[in-house]
Design goal:
This is Acetone carboxylase. The protein is an alpha+beta fold. Helix content is 18%, strand content 16%. Bound molecules: zinc ion (ZN).
Length: 97
């Protein structure tokens, strides 16, 4: 008796269509999410978050999108220059449509 269900009525922290990450896709083109590698039309599975200290303030993050194949290529490119900060699965915190 008197059991409380804290989950009921709980809302996501953002309203539908206002996912904060969507505002970061520079083009405003939301879907499909395509790999950023030149000439690649594959669906992106990964976000590579990077920063070039010569161009960007330390808290700035540029985002490249990568398919499974180019995740390695692009992250190697960024790592070699010391730019890479994070690699995050696209599906983890963004589009799930
Ligand atoms: Zn690709």
């Amino acid at each position: 008796m008197g059991t409380i269900h804290p989950v009921a009525g709980r809302l996501p922290p953002w309203p539908p269509g206002a996912h904060p990450l969507l505002h970061r896709w520079q083009t405003g083109r939301v879907d499909p999410i395509i790999c950023s590698a030149k000439g690649c039309r594959a669906e992106a599975k990964w976000q590579l978050r990077w920063n070039n200290p010569k161009l960007h303030t330390p808290d700035r993050r540029k985002i490249w999108l990568a398919c499974d194949t180019h995740r390695t290529t692009l992250s190697d490119f960024l790592t070699a220059r010391g730019f890479l900060r994070d690699v995050i699965p696209v599906a983890a915190d963004t589009l799930d449509t």
